[in-house]
Amino acid sequence: MASSVACLHAASSIQAQGFKGSSTGSPNKIGAFPLRMVLKGFSLDVPLPERKGNCPRSLNLHVVRSSSSQSSIADPIELPSNSNSTDSQKKSTEASLILIRHGESLWNEKNLFTGCVDVPLTKKGVEEAIEAGKRIRNIPIDMIYTSSLIRAQMTAMLVMSEHRRRKVPIIIHKETEEAQRWSQIYSEETKMQSIPVITAWQLNERMYGELQGLNKQETAELFGKEKVHEWRRSYDVPPPNGESLEMCAERSVTYFRDQIVPQLLAGKNVMIAAHGNSLRSIIMYLDKLTSQEVIKLELSTGIPMLYILKNGKFIRRGSPIAPSEAGVYAYSRSLALYRQKLDKLEEMFE
User: Fold this and answer.
1) Pairing of the two strands 313-318 and 77-78
2) pLDDT of the residue at 122
3) CA–CA distance, 153 with 103 (Å, rounded to integer)
4) 297 vs 330: CA distance, rounded Å
5) To 5 degrees, how large is the angle CA 213–CA 217–CA 221?
6) Among 117, 198, 201, 305, which residue is least crowded by beta carbons within 10 Å?
């Protein structure tokens, strides 16, 4: 009994202070614990300091991960490796990434091509944003990124109104030195109760060019259903004077990689409130979707998607359960097959 207590005490000491040792036996160098992956968890062999009695020389720990039927886990995407020790330390940090498409806008309601036109939310859109806030109210958030468009910014603010920590989202203005000086906060306590909101045009919706403001049904009648379908659903064909999904992905994914991923690697929990096409592009990057898969990706308004960055890999956790019912948000092959069958049925009855 006494030896068992001594063993547990030794393990606790190692856990709290770190074990000093190395493969050469030198007591002044930091060593590493052997780690083995096992089914649904991992096994850790922890060498123990020399002790008298019957205490073993090493302790084998098993950590088992419980499964959850509510979690949707994609193949994790691994970030580029770097031999720098600082990068390795950052990769061991776990951080949350929440993606939310804005709530319904006034032009969504009217079935108009919106693109980069700055249109606010409908009453339903406000309710969707509040519902999204309830879904993620217990997930930590340290930083918020939105597009430069009001519907994404409204969504972010309404989401945070439901968060349990009650921190205030504050848009950071750095357009000019004067704007930065005028918006300065001088209370450290107030800063601690705030969440910075970074706006970026790179996260804007895909620019629909000459289609913006046109009714989608009337546009199909004017230009032809096949041509409009090609503009909307192809990956690399842009509408007149507009952007293709490929062009939208180039700016949004570049911004995500360069500006947002470093924050996640530093341990910051990030929420992105943006648009259907800019978020589709980011999900394409995270989930390694092909150009054919991403054009079938449907994102519902106001439904959050959670990713975890752990050990340099993004792991998709799905949509947090709503207070009343679950939502569907992300690519699935079954959804793609369903859409293909639906398209064929529509063609039969035309």
Assistant:
1) antiparallel
2) 97
3) 10
4) 6
5) 105
6) 201
Residue 173 a catalytic site member = no
CB-facing half-sphere around the CA of 284: CA atoms within 13 A: 24
Q: What is the pLDDT of residue 93?
A: 76
* Backbone torsions φ then ψ of 310, nearest 5 degrees: -140, 125
Q: Which token pair is 39? A: 């089914």
C-alpha span between 245 and 152 (Å, rounded):
19
Query: CA 179, CA 182: separation in Å to the nearest integer?
Result: 5
Is the model's pLDDT at 162 over the cut of 90? yes
CA 32 to chain centre: 31
3-class secondary-structure state, position 26: coil
Say which residue, 341 or 283, is predicted with more confidence: 283
| 221 labelled catalytic | no
> Cβ contacts of residue 336 below 8 Å, gap of 6+?
293, 296
Contact 114, 166 (CB under 8 A): no
| Other C-beta atoms lying within 10 Å of the C-beta of residue 308 | 18
Question: Choosing from 104, 128, 205, 243, which is the catalytic residue?
Answer: 205
Contact present, 306 and 97 (Cβ < 8 Å):
yes
Residue 322's pLDDT is what? 63
* Between 320 and 27, the higher pLDDT residue: 320
H helix runs in the chain, sequence order: 2-17, 85-91, 106-109, 123-135, 150-160, 177-182, 188-192, 216-223, 225-233, 245-255, 261-265, 276-287, 291-294, 333-348
Q: Are strands 194-199 and 58-64 parallel, antiparallel or unpaired?
A: unpaired
- Residue 21: both structure tokens together: 């040792």
What does the pLDDT look like over 210-257, one tens digit per residue? 999 999 999 998 899 999 999 998 999 999 999 999 999 999 999 999
**Residue given tokens 């980069």 in the structure block:** 116
| pLDDT tens digits, 100-129 | 999 999 999 999 999 999 999 999 999 999
Tokens 């005028």 locate to: 182
Cβ–Cβ under 8 Å, residues 263 and 270:
yes
Question: For residue 67, what is the enclosing H or E element?
Answer: none
